[in-house]
Amino acid sequence: MGLRELKKRETRQEISDRATELFLEHGFEETTIADIASAARVAKKTVTNYFPRKEDLALDHHEAFTSGLARTVSEREPGESALAALRRAFAADVQRQDPVIGFSGLPFARMIADSPTLTARLRELNEQREESLAAVLAVETGAEPGDITARAVAAVLGGVHRVLFGDVVRFTLDGLGNDEIAERVGESGRRAFDLVEPALADYAVRAGE
User: Fold this and answer.
1) Which residues of 141-151 are buried (b: 16+ CB within 10 A; e: fewer)?
2) Which of 20, 112, 137, 200 is the most buried (most CB within 10 A)?
């Protein structure tokens, strides 16, 4: 990585870190772009150049969130179905208590729950995630244009992940520790994936090499 790119990455991280501190201390709605720029010692335009939407300063894993399901399916093993790949990936995410699936800590979870703007943005990100998954499924299965199957499957699998994400946040707000949340959500995940297994076990199975 060149020095210019390294400097840009450091600036982006500094802005993100200062924004998170302000959001947690004062609330998302109450914190302005000017406040963030001042804390990070940059111009307001610099903040918006790196983060066009204020919500993305708070939800800074949004790119990994929206692309994660699609990437898991596209990288699945030979003989593995889309469902099996997503199930395996979710179990691994729970084990490492990944922030992308909701393990954010109580202050952060409370900040999101208290902000109508962030709650709405999460709904948008869930829709984008399902759309990305549907696009990959359509390609992987050779679906005809207009075929509803990939979109319907993406809605089901995206819905499972959306519900489980909500459980992580809810348990966090209830004051449970991450280890207990992981145990509960791990079990909920197994049950949820079991429910859709009969319908999707043989869908989008990658051909063996």
Assistant:
1) bebeeeeeebb
2) 137
